[in-house]
Automatic annotation (TrEMBL), chain A:
Domain of life of the source: Eukaryota
The protein's name in its UniProt record: Uncharacterized protein
Source species of the chain: Phlebia brevispora
TrEMBL record, chain B:
Name listed for the protein in its UniProt record: Uncharacterized protein
Native organism: Phlebia brevispora
Length: 196, 832
């Protein structure tokens, strides 16, 4: 099971936090703890780490000795961190992070940190297309993208029916396509080439 | 943050302004203040009538943003927005608005909140709505926060939705049943037939969901339909494997359901594995039994190692980890050539490569390699252990010693995974070898060793822990063998935490800890003394020798240890008081005991300060507790009533290792840069016990903590763990002051009333330095009350207000009736 999905930047500022199991302590403390664990690891180390000290943060549903593991990936200024138990395959989760980032990239058209700052609600929605209740719902980027686009379309229609004179909104995040913010851009398309 | 509003994608100007303020805030308290003010503003706005949906949605999103960005320890109750969120979820005209309402409820509403019931009807209506997006939205909410109360209201509709036209609805409905089954186990049995149908669904996404639910169903349902579902699930898993569709999910299902794996499924798994090495995760899991894998291997005529062989030589360290994970799952006799039946599958250079992983900089890879090798032949690991242990470390630096300790600890963790006794003996060997080999580090505590041992003990099974403690307590009780600093610190912590499990009488432990007390440095003495105080609770009689040693140490030590000795001596005849302190402690750990002890001491001093007999002692020099704290300061020092809790920035504390992000560089959002982790906010680790070693700068730990100014209705609370005084307190043998209970006095201090009273003694000016520099100079912040210690009138006070300018400067405004004090401060401020 996936216990938590966290995104924070290279300074440790949380950009998205989603917990699928109840927390025993504050989310901020957990984010700081994981940031301390992850940020101190050099790029030459693997993207998985056992973190027994996290056991006290998350309520484990099963007491059968399932150890929590942290699977993370660093993309430009952001860390994407998944906390999973031993049921999940580490490599599968690493791929899932890639899927999540690609989905964000498709939805926001060149996703950058600012997109997550201003549209963290939308990022939550995209995440909910991939993970539901700690279980992987979908891993196919195409299907996630089409679901997000359908949801956006449905919202647009629903918005139009609620506001008959409006022109609707464009794009998922409401940001005009092609408008680029001058900072925080991920240097490459998030296809995993530069990611690790 | 240079992005303009138009291209930011912000919901509104207010949203943009808030984000901008936070991202460009110069410090965390400044950002917190902005967030608290914003929350207050939204609270007021939400209380107004006639809010539009758009406004409500925006406020809810802003509140979620505020909640995510508040710093650690600062919790604000945002329940005031819950009724609005519930209302938005109910009455929202667009799906987006409803989603925001639901999202706020999901993120902010406690599980047993009374408003949960208000959502039941809303969810039921959304489930019955013709729009697919509304149905999906409601299903997602149910998956996220299932509750028993909602089941009767929605289960009939959910049953219908299992046959909905849309695969998205069918899939989510299956997951909803799975989520609801955590509240009511029998709910799945009713839909077993439907789950069976969904296993044969046209849509793969639905089938994978059905596979997942069928696992849960099998745990509760062993009826005919249950067995039928199991059979179908296995069949489906096999079919999916053959088609290489979603291999991981199918394999994991096959693994869980297929308690009786047949060779057909296994060979299918092997086929999948040959096309996609990732499937091997499932294959090796499924083929736990060697015979199964061999059978599958022979049916596919391929070696199981072939699909993953290339991973070992990959440049990507993740691939190496993956290879080792696979290898770790397979029985060694299938690849190591340990039996004559199965030859070794790895080439010589491949084995060498695996051995090289022992020296990997990544501890996860090292541990995996050690586990694999110990499974092949434990003697390999034992030889490696001896080799590392006997390395020459005479010229090793402290870092190298720590790294050696880390690697040796990893080895004994693998070697003695179940045996606490041998683990304890090996641990003793490691510590004694490392400390004896390096002359420079003899008196140092190996902090990572202490930390890892204590974490391991907390997680270890009871029998491992008991065996370990048996050996360790016996070590402590052995007077002939002197313990090193590291062992003593571990012993002190273990005595305090696991005293109830001790096979040695507490009096003996007390005797043992006290015997070597004089030979240690102050930091270790502090840990020992704390444990000795803890032991009082369990001792019928305190040995005279322990008391005598404590007296001797008290005479020879600095103020901090003197105080700790005094505590021990005072409490040595008050067993019930110590028992009371122990009972008040949040946990049995040493830091929590210290916290409880200090709380007791503070309470005692507060009682003493308020009792008439004692207050008379303080006059005339100490007319009040507040004045008494003033009197202790030299004339040159200023007293203050600061807003911010004084930050303890001892060099011993771990500062957050933050790299400046490119984002921050460009945007200038520097609030998270160069900041020091709030010592009160970080998790206490056992390693803090040992941070004391090698301390040069000693610090004051008992400064009164004052809370920053917050709106009166917003309580600043620190979470359980973060609120504890960490063991850093142990490392201050020369504490400047005993705990002063001036906090209530400062909290009671009415700045505004005093400010108004002093309206005649105004002094204003403009500092050329940034406010931080002024604050640092005055050791205060924003509103500061300054007392002069040399004034004949103890009530003489100067009040200072600081307002930050935009160009790293600040305006100050001073009020003081005493001309001398006013001039002194005025000159100080002008000189900055």
């Amino acid at each position: 099971m996936i216990h938590a999905v966290l995104i924070f930047n290279t300074s440790g500022v949380a950009r998205l936090t989603k917990f699928y199991t109840p927390l025993r302590q504050s989310a901020e403390t957990l984010v700081q703890k994981i940031f301390a664990l992850v940020s101190s690891r050099s790029a030459t180390l693997c993207n998985f780490l056992d973190a027994p000290e996290l056991e006290s943060f998350l309520s484990q549903s099963s007491d059968d000795g399932d150890k929590l593991r942290v699977v993370y990936r660093n993309y430009a200024t952001l860390y994407f961190v998944f906390i999973v138990d031993s049921v999940e395959s580490e490599l599968g989760i690493l791929d899932l992070i890639q899927v999540f980032v690609e989905s964000l990239d498709r939805a926001f058209e060149n996703v950058c940190e600012l997109d997550l700052v201003f549209h963290f609600d939308e990022a939550h929605h995209i995440l909910s297309e991939i993970i539901q209740g700690g279980l992987v719902l979908e891993t196919n980027v195409e299907e996630i993208d089409s679901a997000v686009q359908e949801a956006a379309k449905a919202r647009k229609e629903s918005f139009a029916s609620a506001n008959p004179l409006s022109l609707g909104s464009s794009g998922v995040g409401g940001r005009g396509s092609g408008i680029q913010t001058p900072l925080g851009w991920l240097t490459t398309k998030l296809t995993g080439v530069s990611a690790r | 943050m240079d992005v303009p509003f138009i291209s930011s994608g912000a919901l509104s100007r207010a949203h943009y302004a808030l984000v901008r303020k936070i991202e460009t805030a110069t410090s965390i308290p400044a950002a917190d203040q902005v967030l608290l003010t914003e929350i207050e503003t939204i609270r007021e706005r939400l209380a107004r009538a006639g809010l539009t949906e758009k406004q409500t949605k925006e406020y809810l999103i802003l509140l979620l943003y505020c909640s995510m960005n508040l710093s650690v320890g600062l919790t604000v109750n945002m329940d005031f927005a819950l009724p609005h969120a519930v209302n938005l979820a109910e009455a929202g005209r667009t799906v987006q608005n409803k989603r925001t309402g639901y999202m706020y409820c999901a993120e902010m509403m406690p599980k047993d909140h009374e408003l949960q019931l208000m959502l039941v009807n809303t969810l039921r209506k959304d489930l019955e709505h013709p729009s697919m997006s509304r149905i999906c939205l409601a299903l997602e909410v149910l998956i996220q926060s299932p509750s028993e109360d909602i089941i009767p209201a929605v289960q009939d509709r959910l049953y219908e939705l299992l046959s909905h036209n849309s695969p998205h609805v069918r899939r989510r409905t299956l997951y909803t049943f799975q989520a609801l089954s955590t509240c009511h186990r029998d709910i799945l049995e009713r839909v077993a037939e439907k789950i069976n149908q969904r296993l044969r669904d046209q849509e793969p996404v639905v089938v994978t969901a059905a596979l997942s639910v069928s696992l849960d169903l099998l745990e509760v349902c062993w009826s005919t339909i249950g067995r039928q579902v199991a059979w179908n699930a296995r069949k489906t898993a096999g079919r999916y494997l053959a088609a290489s569709r979603r291999p991981h999910r199918a394999l994991s299902t096959g693994k869980d359901i297929g308690n009786l794996p047949d060779s057909g499924t296994n060979s299918t798994s092997m086929q999948a594995a040959t096309t996609d090495h990732r499937s091997l995760f499932g294959t090796e899991e499924q083929c736990k039994r060697a015979s199964d894998l061999l059978e599958a291997q022979s049916s596919t005529r391929k070696l199981w190692i072939d699909p993953i062989r290339h991973l070992l030589v990959s440049q990507d360290v993740n691939d190496v980890y993956l290879f080792l994970t696979c290898l770790d799952c397979i029985e060694p006799k299938l690849w190591a050539g340990t039996t004559s039946e199965v030859p070794a599958v790895l080439e010589g250079w491949e084995v060498e490569r695996i051995m090289q992983s022992l020296h990997s900089p990544d501890s996860s890879i090292r541990l995996k390699t050690l586990r694999i090798l110990s499974k092949v032949d434990v003697r390999i690991v034992e030889t490696y252990y001896t080799q590392i242990l006997q390395m020459d470390r005479t010229s090793a630096t402290a870092e190298e010693l720590v790294e050696s300790a880390r690697r040796l600890m990893e080895i004994i963790e693998v070697l003695h995974v179940k045996d606490g006794e041998t683990y304890a003996h090996s641990l003793r060997d490691i510590i004694s070898t490392l400390t004896s080999q390096s002359v420079a580090e003899k008196q140092e505590v190996l902090q990572n060793v202490v930390e890892e041992v204590l974490i391991k003990l907390r997680e270890a099974p009871t029998d491992f822990r008991s065996a370990f403690l048996g050996v360790f307590f016996a070590l402590l009780d052995n007077p002939e063998q002197p313990l090193g600093p590291t062992t003593t610190v571990i012993g002190a912590a273990v005595v305090c935490e696991y005293l109830d499990n001790s096979p040695i009488p507490p009096t003996h432990l007390l005797q043992a800890l006290s015997t070597q007390l004089p030979s240690y440095n102050a930091a270790i003495q502090d840990a020992c003394l704390l444990s000795m105080i803890r032991l009082i609770a369990a001792c019928e009689d305190i040995p005279e020798s322990a008391v005598a040693i404590a007296r001797k140490v008290q005479e020879q030590s600095g103020r901090y240890i003197r105080r700790r000795c005094e505590q021990f001596l005072n409490l040595s005849h008050s067993r019930t008081i110590v028992q009371h302190i122990v009972s008040k402690s949040k946990s049995s750990s040493l830091p929590d005991f210290l916290m409880s002890l200090e709380a007791y001491e503070a309470e005692k001093m507060a009682r003493a300060a308020t009792s008439p007999s004692l207050s008379s002692i303080s006059s005339p020099e100490r007319p009040s507790s507040r004045a008494s704290s003033q009197a202790s300061h030299t004339p040159g020092k200023l007293r203050y009533a600061a807003y911010d809790a004084p930050k303890l920035t001892s060099s011993l504390r771990r500062t957050r290792t933050r790299s400046r992000s490119p984002y921050s560089d460009r945007s200038g959002s520097s609030r998270f840069i160069n900041e020091v982790e709030d010592p009160m906010s970080r998790t206490i680790t056992a390693g803090d016990l040992t941070l004391a070693s090698g301390q040069i700068e000693l610090q004051t730990v008992s400064q009164p903590r004052t809370l920053p100014s917050t709106p009166p209705q917003l309580a600043r609370t620190v979470d359980d763990l973060a609120s504890r005084v960490d063991l850093i307190a142990l490392d201050s043998p020369f504490i400047a002051d005993p705990p002063v209970t001036t906090t209530p006095t400062q909290a009671d201090f009415d700045f505004k009333a005093m400010w108004d009273k002093l309206s005649k003694g105004n002094l204003r000016g403009w500092c050329e330095s940034p406010m931080d520099a002024v604050v640092r100079k005055l050791q205060g912040d924003l509103k500061i009350a300054i007392y002069s210690a040399d004034s004949s009138n103890p009530d003489t006070v100067a009040l200072l207000r600081l307002k930050e300018g935009e160009d790293d400067s600040c305006m100050w405004h001073l009020r003081c009736d005493d001309l001398g004090l006013k001039d002194t401060i005025g000159v100080t401020l002008k000189d900055i």
